[in-house]
Amino acid sequence: KAGVTQTPRYLIKTRGQQVTLSCSPISGHRSVSWYQQTPGQGLQFLFEYFSETQRNKGNFPGRFSGRQFSNSRSEMNVSTLELGDSALYLCASSFLTGGPYNEQFFGPGTRLTVL
Amino acid sequence: AQSVTQLDSQVPVFEEAPVELRCNYSSSVSVYLFWYVQYPNQGLQLLLKYLSGSTLVKGINGFEAEFNKSQTSFHLRKPSVHISDTAEYFCAVTREGAQKLVFGQGTRLTINP
Question: How confident is the model at residue B52 (pLDDT cuts 50, 70, 90)?
Answer without folding.
Answer: confident
